[in-house]
Design brief:
lipid a biosynthesis, 6-stranded parallel sheet, 49% helix, lipid-A-disaccharide synthase activity, 380 residues, Rossmann fold, globular, glycosyltransferase, Lipid-A-disaccharide synthase
């Protein structure tokens, strides 16, 4: 089979690479062409564009890079048609991929979507685009299957690739002592700071996270450096502070931390699956106005963290926009650092989360389901 994959950011590169690895085990004649990153490239095939050269975040960046965006669409469309794959596999990255789904569908190219855009959370009208242009959806969150079924989309839940990434993570058996020596950290217990993978998130959330440093001097606060940033990018935030940065070792840091402060997103789920108690804190521009718009108009779900959405309750505390304050953040973190009822209950909730999510093997399961579907779809 000839596979064309499109992933537009670091997480997509990771999960697409695991899927490619599974395809190679199931399909000895697998050929790949893709938009992605280093991890996908390591699996073989041809990298057309690296996600670092295509990523555009936020309305202002979109306006400033319209020419570049149009150029990327034109290149991708031309390249897709010339390659003529058996299937186009889209991985998250909704802004780009939904347009490519429409183009591919119009040109009779089979379209599978892996890792759904979060249409259940906001802008639910986009589910109509998915139904019109996507042949099959492969979801990674348990509650997504019911949502898409209700909207008439052919959908399968194939487990979550985060489980694979965590299971296969490097240094998962190393001791705390080995971890701190390897990263030149001190002996104090750690508090992990996961401030996001985009500069906008970091600008809004990291400064307030760092205000906790002086409140808990008996702990060493360590920033989980995102793959797309260097330690120098964090230096203006921590100048003169007793704070360390560990780059591209988020799992290692979290598994060796007493607690974590985490922005919303996949990081909340990863932190929970690594059994690290956490406070979800997320701020953006606009204060109370943005809070009102988000909760009353945009966000269509009860929670902002995946942990709470999956468990359907507030298992981890969410401090979002108007609900955020430094006092609340300090109180929540203090409770989790101690052997408090809150900490114990959160760890019990994590046990239930593991049960619902299942174990590793989702990438192989997804590849198997896709190949079974391809046999059916290619005969139509």
């Amino acid at each position: 089979m000839r596979y064309y994959l499109i992933a537009g950011e670091a997480s997509g590169d990771l999960h697409a690479s695991n899927l490619m690895k599974a395809f190679k085990e199931k399909d000895q004649e697998a050929e790949f062409r893709y938009w992605g990153g280093d991890l996908m490239e390591a699996q073989g095939g041809t990298l057309v564009r690296h996600y670092k050269d295509t990523a555009v975040m936020g309305a202002w960046d979109v306006l400033m890079n319209l020419g570049k965006i149009k150029e990327n669409f034109a290149l991708c469309q031309k390249d897709l048609m010339e390659y003529n794959p058996d299937v186009l596999i889209l991985v998250d990255y909704a802004g780009f991929n939904l347009r490519m789904a429409k183009f591919a569908h119009q040109h009779n190219i089979l379209v599978y979507y892996y890792i759904s855009p979060k249409v259940w959370a906001w802008n639910q009208s986009r589910v109509k685009k998915i139904k019109a242009s996507v042949d099959r959806m492969f979801t990674i969150l348990p509650f997504e299957k019911k949502f898409f079924e209700e909207h008439g989309v052919d959908v399968k839940y194939s487990g979550n690739p985060v489980l694979d990434a965590i299971h296969n993570r490097p240094n998962k058996e190393e001791s705390f002592q080995t971890f701190i020596e390897r990263n030149q950290l001190d002996e104090r217990p750690k508090v992990a700071l996961l401030a996001g993978s985009r500069m906008g998130e970091i600008n809004y959330n990291l400064p307030d996270m760092l205000k906790m440093v002086e409140k808990f001097p008996q702990y060493q606060f360590v920033i989980a450096g995102a793959p797309s940033f260097s330690k120098d990018d964090y230096q203006p935030f921590i100048e003169g502070m007793d704070v360390a940065v560990v780059s591209s070792q988020t799992y290692e840091l979290v598994q060796n931390s007493r607690a974590a402060l985490v922005t919303s997103g996949t990081a909340t789920l990863e932190t929970a699956l690594l059994n690290c108690p956490q406070v979800v804190c997320y701020k953006m521009w606009g204060g109370g106005f943005t809070d009102f718009v988000a909760k009353k108009i945009l966000i269509k779900v009860a929670y902002i963290s995946l942990v709470n959405l999956i468990l359907d309750k507030e298992a981890v505390k969410e401090l979002f926009q108007k609900a955020f304050s430094l006092e609340k953040l300090e109180n929540e973190l203090s409770a989790l650092l101690e052997d408090s009822p809150q900490r114990k209950q959160m760890l019990l909730d994590y046990v239930e989360l593991h049960r619902i999510m299942g174990g590793p093997g989702s990438s192989m399961k997804t590849a198997t389901l896709m190949l079974e579907s391809l046999k059916i779809d290619k005969e139509k």
